[in-house]
Amino acid sequence: MANLVGARLERKEDKKFLTGKGRYTADINLPNQSYAYFVRSPHARAKITKVDHSKAMKAPGVIDVFTGDSVALDKIGGLICGWKIVSHDGKDMKCPPHPVLAKDSVNFVGDHVAVVVAETLEQAKNAAELVNVSYKVQKAVTKTEDATSFETIHEGIDNNLSFDFLLGDKGKTDEAFSKADKIVKLDIINNRLIPNAMEPRAAIGDYNTSSDELTLYTASQNPHLDRLIMSAFNAVHPEHKFRIVSPDVGGGFGSKINVYAEDVVVSYASKKIGRPVKWVAERSESFMSDNHGRDHVTHAQLALKNDGKIIGMKVDTIANLGAYSLVLAAVTPTYLYAPLILGIYDIPAACCTVKGVYTNTAPTDAYRGAGRPEATYVIERIVTKAAKEIGMDQAEFRKKNFITKFPHQQCLVHNIDSGDYNAHLDKALELADYKNFENRRSQSAKKGKLRGIGFSTYFEACGVAPSAVVMSIGAGVGLWESAEVRFNPTGNVSVFTGTHSHGQSHDTTFAQIVGDKLGVAIENIDIVHGDTDKGPFGMGTYGSRSLAVGGTAIVNACDKIIAKGKKVAAKMLEGKPEDIDFKAGEFILKNSNKKKTIGEIAFACYLPGTFGDVKSPLPEGVEPGLIETSFFDPSNFSFPSGSHICEVEVDEETGETKLVKYTVVDDFGTVINPMIVEGQVYGGVAQGVGQALYENAHYDESGQLTSASYMDYTMPRADNFPQITIDYTCTPATSNPIGAKGCGEAGTIAAPAAVMNAVIDAVGSDISMPATSEKVWNALKKNGSKKAAA
Amino acid sequence: MKSFNFKSATNSKDAAKLATGRATYLAGGMTLLPAMKLRLAAYSDLINIKKIKGLSGIKVSSKSIRIGSTTTHAEVAASKEVGKSIPSLSMLAEGIGDPQVRNRGTIGGSIANNDPAADYPSACLALNATIHTNKRKILSDKFFTGMFETELKKGELIETIEFEVPEKSAYAKFPNPASRYALVGVYVAKLKKEVRVAVTGAGSSVFRSKELESVLSKNFSASAIENVNITSKGLNSDIHASPEYRAHIIKVMARKAVSSC
Q1: B81 lies in which domain range?
Q2: Are the C-beta atoms of A256 and A540 separated by less than 8 Å?
Q3: What are the residue ranges in chain A where pLDDT is below 70?
Q4: Pairwise CA distance, residues B212 & B249, whole Å
Q5: Is residue B53 part of a domain?
Q6: Rounded Cα–Cα distance for residues B117 and B115 (Å)
Q7: Rounded distance, CA A464 to CA A441, Å?
Q8: Is residue B95 located within the same domain as residue B68?
Q9: Residue contact B178–A710, C-beta within 8 A
């Protein structure tokens, strides 16, 4: 059998998705189903004085209406922050209460106030208009930088400050700065984004009054974690009687990690009325109530010696948590961000402070890259600025400061096991034809366009995560992963993974690994995920972890299958287990022509009768069946890295920016399916370009979300992109046997800095994201462009 | 969407009879239906006018083009006669929305709705169009009265839009990056008797630019625009563009349009 690992196999899941046969939560309809519609706050901040649902209760088709009082009465717990961090003074972060239906106050536009359950969706919507909520509207704060000076929005949380985090050695860093020949300073804003998964969130609660079992269908990246949180914290239903199914999920990007109010409420409502309750978000609800991402205000400083060597770095960030703290709200701008500000440079001293603040905006949480795009944006922008200020070529400046020896213990947190940063930069410089850039710049100038080039040489910490490490810094759970490999008696294989595929192509990639490992044809392997009743407890998919952690659990379970198979084969082939070789699906007795296929061994394990002279193929002490489970806890994070080089053309008259050339060389360690990885890189780059040039979640002064539809929220589109050049270098990860480092978020992490460095290079002055035509035009006018002024 | 009665008319008279109370006409539904789905609008009756024979189709003479109100954008874009006689109008139709919108959306619906950022109203003003309704003829200069407002009376139905064939004309659009409606669209036409310049996207409703018309009447060339001062007063301000930027883009688009005439 040819090697599957490394092959550009077409995706097994494509047939169903491309022919409209995907089965998403919204496609599921249950007998006797009812429909939920949420009453949401139209105000950014208000006290609730009264919720009168008497008229709604009498409206046609209404089954019940639930409010903050109902859930309080039934002791349904609020939404939680799942990873709590500690401020530099040793105090725990402060989290406001976050009830699943607001009781006393609302804190952002879209906050969940009540739910109407009716026979049809139209009836639910009509009745929702009759729920009379009396609000006492208060002044709202939306801007990150204004939060600490605004009046307290949550009782007991002074200055709206959740935490004041510090990482690094301030004394050492100050000392480094005192020895600097030059200090480079940069103020940057990391704009707020809305994740925009193609499938809006959806949930169906289905309580079985006979068996006392509760099933929740929900678009989630991590159904087991949802069940754990909802049973342990929200007190919805005991874990052993609670099943969560996340069937096909159309994109998550981090926004489907959280347990949301709607998940809890439809489950609760189903128990209350004894019928299935279905809710599907409308797109405007997604804009308002999905977790948002990014939203940082940062001041960064870099200390340099005259020869261009970086000797220190200081970063001070304010991170907008929004109205409440969601599951990963606190870790995203702290531990997923601060350690990464060093980039791939050998920086001996650094410190980073992060203030987490509450505002009257949608809560922020993980969004593709989660902390790492923000960190990469800081380091890659300031490194570019530093190179320009000291008049050094930006590639040369980077190389002068690259880490070159591995493993490398960074001065903040990470111990980077492997990498070769010069290799991917050199390859990218060649593919991007860097040496002829100035010719291209002149060519563009002849057409009246300003051409710029930007670099982003990034790294990230993936493969989350070593449980002992993350639990020591506040994680509520360990971040191992599980797998179960189940041989069926007829020789095909069901593989259960605790990860979840919502676009990552696990059906194909994992089958390639198992196919090679066990010598089973890929069509005889089924990858099963997304149902807490099927496989063992798993942690789900985020942080580019599925292959490095979940894939390793699969590999380890396969090894256990082979080990057991050897014992059985030895009995059947009349040899010793240590004399059995396993290769390409066959157990072979050394120095003989005697062999058994793995299918024959599986069959014998399940039907241990008489096989020729062999009475029972199972040696003494070996149980029937061929099923193995493995839980893998990695020893370290994995550290993908790469070089992005972007070229843009700016129209001097209109300020319009066009991406004209984009080159990526990534080191993802071992790549299982390059075609799938390229898909991830394309999509990731597109999302990163979206942040740099187009996307922006905008709240006005009163706290209204003015970019709450596709009429106003600019998504990147296919015609915004040139063909992207993608290539690889490879230094395998040492923290997992596959050698995989993770690829799902890389594009989004690297691209914003590459694009903005290019725009700034073209325009000649600083511009904030997104670099809209008007912002660029204003900058050009300020710089004296006659065409922009004309 | 709140429930409503759906009725079809087979001629204009019947349509007008059906249009009583909280009723409205339905042609392509590209704006009406989303507004109803979002509960921004609700009607007791929708009167389908797509089945009325004679409301759809294109008639060309040497002086004018008459386009039936239920003619789709795709039909206008694909019409060889329109392409030959007023190529800028085909180009405008080709640039509206996406293929789905162009296959459903109609010219009558677009101008009756008078979205401040729609493309067709600018063509009407620049090409000195006459709007023929079931009751009367309305000159385009009188037709567009304000944001989402027109001269149409309750129950009045647009039947045909008659465009004057210009000597030269062009439409240049700078799209809103999110919606891809016109952030600014400038339609320039050199007619037999006058030069007309219509601007969409920039104000609360489509308007004629007197400054541009005045200079282009004297000298119909891009260079004539260089020294024109476009006022930003009264122009739209939103998260995508300030009035100042829109004023600048009007000038850039006008130059582009005149250059491509």
Answers
A1: 58-164
A2: no
A3: 1-2
A4: 13
A5: no
A6: 5
A7: 42
A8: yes
A9: yes
